[in-house]
Design a protein that fits this description.
By secondary structure, the chain is an alpha+beta fold. It folds into 2 domains: 57 residues; 43 residues, no CATH class. 61% of the residues lie in helices and 17% in strands. It contains 3 helices and 5 strands. The strands form 2 sheets. Strands 3-4-5 form a 3-stranded antiparallel β-sheet, with no helix packed on it. β1 and β2 form a beta hairpin. The chain binds zinc ion. The site of zinc ion has 8 residues, from loops. Zinc ion binds next to loops.
């Protein structure tokens, strides 16, 4: 059909123009498809990178160590203060591990100091 029409120059030019336009369109479509595939890859890869990045960040942030009081092993965020989930001791997370915030004995002394005050307040009220 193309060969037959090529004999008439006008129609041949028109057909070649359509052919070029189709080629350009197909190339353009190819780029669109490529762009879509690249976008799809980015969309697929980004969560994986984000996941690994998050894991890497967590590894930098999280410290795994044993409680200095009861040797209960768990993980904590760096540069934070929290209580041991096993024995309730107030602990501080440092880069190398956990350490007690209050020196041994401080809590007991505070408890002894608080109790008489509460008793005194109660007796004054009565
Ligand atoms: Zn503990």
């Amino acid at each position: 059909m193309f060969r037959y029409n090529a004999n008439t120059s006008g129609l041949g030019c028109g057909l070649s123009f359509i052919l070029i336009a189709f080629l350009l369109a197909s190339v353009g479509l190819g780029w669109v498809v490529n762009g879509f595939l690249i976008l799809l890859c980015v969309l697929l890869i980004t969560p994986i990178i984000a996941f690994w990045g998050f894991q890497w960040w967590l590894k930098r942030k999280l410290v795994q160590d044993e409680c200095p009081v009861c040797s209960y092993e768990f993980t904590g965020f760096k540069n934070t203060e929290f209580r041991c989930p096993s024995c309730g001791e107030a602990l501080q997370v440092e880069s190398d591990g956990f350490s007690r915030i209050t020196p041994p004995g401080t809590i007991d002394v505070n408890a002894v100091e608080v109790s008489p005050q509460q008793i005194e307040e109660n007796t004054y009220n009565e």
